[in-house]
Amino acid sequence: MARQDPQTSNGASESTTADQSDDRDEIILRTNPTTRPTLIRLGVVLLLSLGVFGYLQLNPEALGSSDITNTAALIILLLGLILTVRFLIRTIVLVRTTYVVTRSRVEQQYELLFRTHSKGIRFDKVRSHELSQNRIQTILGYGTISMNRGLGPLRLENVDEPETVYEAIRTCAQRAE
Amino acid sequence: MAVRGVGAIVRGAFDAIFRPHRFVEFQTDSYGASRLGVIRQLGSLLGVYLVNLVAYAIPLTLAGIGIQSSQRAPAGFADVVSSYGIDATASWQLLVAFVQNSLFISIATAITLVTFHVGVLIVRDSQGIVQSMHTVVYTTSAYLVATFSAVWYLTNQAGVSGARQLVRTLQAAFVYAIIDALGAGLELPGGRPNSLGVETISTQGQWILAILTLTLLYYLFSLYLGARINHRATRSNAVIAVIAVALSPVVYVTGSIITYIIA
């Protein structure tokens, strides 16, 4: 009865395992979410809030009395400021986010101010996946890819060229079935 | 531990202002679906609400809001607290003021919960009472508390009389609009306001009015987000749920007028 040399067989299996592991971790696709929609929203907010604020400042009696008009201008200013900060933060987060698709999993990675966040799903755990694009998203060329909705979901937002990314995910998920 | 607690508060305040969707979203994969699980979750949310309520009402009470110095403690209460060496009159006055200060916001929270949940039920998007309660508890703990605090400031502080007068005028005009719509012919103690104008609003008053308006907008927007995220409602259905909440003052005043007429 032939006996395999344990060292050789172990070495070979370890080498095989390592090769398989490398193969599974091979990056198929790496992309960053687009900041286009957020920057557009930021621009609209700045334009509207500064426009309305300017109008109210130039027309102090627009709402009946100068004090009431000043109050309304203050509301617009504060709202505009809050939305501006919100969209700026969102832009920074999107710039620091990366979506990675390997042969074995899809991951969302985010790093800012020495804080790292990584969330992923293995393809053999994917039970559902969908690509959604409304009219505006289609025009601007981005979309949202959701996986395992309601089951510990992963949601990739602002995905540039979403059809390409979704096709890669779909193919890998099918292979893992 | 303390740093983590402070960090959580700072992060919560940041989310409440800049990321309200993170503040109200309900983790659907972390809650159970069984009846016992639902009861446990409701209990947990009630605990969060009570902690926030106490955190809101205690500073108000200690600041003297709602305390009536003429009140005397009932005999039974006096006997119990005196045995522990506590001043019965002072503790009774504090207790009554605490209950009173908690009552208004509790009533507002209950009305919000009922009208919001009825709203999502009507549009057939309800995912459960737990989701509604989660939305309302976190909305109340931030935005309704801020609204009530702004109203308290307007009511009690000096230097904001113009703003106070404007808010009272708006409230009276709102009630009279419903009285006129019902043809009730009733009169409020302060009379019908001639116009919505006020002589002058101080800078302080303008800031309080601005903050009050923003907190109300946040309150309604967070309910909209709650319907969209926690109940997965469409945009139009979420708007309907918010309208149901926004109409609750109309329902309340209409009900009060009709009750008064019948009585």
Automatic annotation (TrEMBL), chain A:
<feature type="transmembrane region" description="Helical">
    <location>
        <begin position="39"/>
        <end position="56"/>
    </location>
</feature>
<keyword id="KW-0472">Membrane</keyword>
<feature type="compositionally biased region" description="Polar residues">
    <location>
        <begin position="1"/>
        <end position="19"/>
    </location>
</feature>
<keyword id="KW-1133">Transmembrane helix</keyword>
<keyword id="KW-0812">Transmembrane</keyword>
<dbReference type="Pfam" id="PF03703">
    <property type="entry name" value="bPH_2"/>
</dbReference>
<feature type="domain" description="YdbS-like PH">
    <location>
        <begin position="96"/>
        <end position="168"/>
    </location>
</feature>
<feature type="transmembrane region" description="Helical">
    <location>
        <begin position="68"/>
        <end position="89"/>
    </location>
</feature>
<protein>
    <submittedName>
        <fullName>PH domain-containing protein</fullName>
    </submittedName>
</protein>
<feature type="region of interest" description="Disordered">
    <location>
        <begin position="1"/>
        <end position="28"/>
    </location>
</feature>
<dbReference type="InterPro" id="IPR005182">
    <property type="entry name" value="YdbS-like_PH"/>
</dbReference>
